[in-house]
Amino acid sequence: MTEISEHKIIDCSLKSILNITIPIMISMASIFLMLLIDRAMLAAYSMDSMNAVTMSGNFVCIFTFMFMGIANVAEVFAGQYNGSKQYEKLAAPTWQMIYMAIASCVISFPIAYFSNYINTLPSYYLKEGVIYQQILMFFAFTQPLRVAFVAFFVGQGKTKIITFAVTIGVVTNLVLDYLLIYGVKNIIPAMGSKGAAIATVIAEFVQIAILAAVFFSRKNRKIYKTFENRQFNAKLFLDCLKIGVPMSLGNFISMIAWYVVQTAVSYTSKDAATVYNIGINVYTFFLFVGEGANKAVAAICSNMIGRGDLESIEKTRRIFVAISIIFGGIIAIPLAMWPEWIFKILSLFPDNISFLYADIRIVFYLVALDVVLETLLLSHWGILIAGGDSLYASIVYQICLWVFIVFPTVILYYSHMLGSIPLLFELMTIWLIATQFFLYMRYKSLKWYTKLV
Hints:
Helix content: over 70%
Number of strands: 0
Number of helices: 18
């Protein structure tokens, strides 16, 4: 935690970029690994539990991602403040997003309370899905709160504390998952999805406690005025909303889109839901590369915009294109070439799904390609976010998502032709290519470049 004692200069050198990018990717990998193992543990408990939690989790994400999208904007302002050496203002965006996270309870609490009625779960998933949804919605504010604290450190390129907090949170979650999902004889009853939800909430609070402790440390209070900046700043709050709301609405619409797809698949058949959920859970885990690149690019380029260095942004973009292909390839090739190791894990679960392996194998090939494409897309999106151009990126992303994935899925469902789950992942490939094209053209136009502070 000694990194908080000095200001970091972020440039376009490969060393500087990797010093920021790798820790963020490791942190994102830890989070996605936690989700993957969470699902795997539930699958070992019951495949119905895994399917129910995946569906309920997507429903919860409709709301949590909406507020996380707003909170994440604090990173852009912190980065530009850092780049322009206005260090005394770095903590102000975090405080505005802390207030926003708390205010989100106005929406999440009622949804949590009425979870028995506000859901679209099939009858065979209600028992495990509703309780999971209810617990996570009651504590939905913790995720944007954590993101608000993270933004303060990411904006400065100080990522060690984030990696530390995430690591402790992941370990906490995994230990509690094991104890609460399966139970301990004569001590803790087996709780299934309820135990998984409780473990997730506790892990979030652990991460927040660690980040807050460093945020309010003596050095940070002195250098960055982390306590003095606690006042509500209406102008800064609205500036954050101006950029964050398009991202937030984009996240909201995106999660609705994926929830529509998930619901259509779940109502098609249990087998279709199993193939889709295995594929989407593996895909989600490997997105740590893309999500890590997105956050790193936004942090690095916002610093460069803060000091008016446009030339370095193009050099940074080229490096991230290479990183996307290399890291994406390292992950994707083993997944496509040797999926048997996953089949061995699946064979240990109580439900025999070996008859689905042929479809799952095809899905893995497509997931491998989609991981690389999404990493490239998110890298370019990070540059646009750094310049405050969140509206264009969100609109393009959503239009392509609904045109190339959601509408075709709904048509296939009502035409009783949704039996081929690999087809959905082929549609994802088309969607990613189209979205990447439009984001790249926006980048070339320079219409995204704005100095916000």
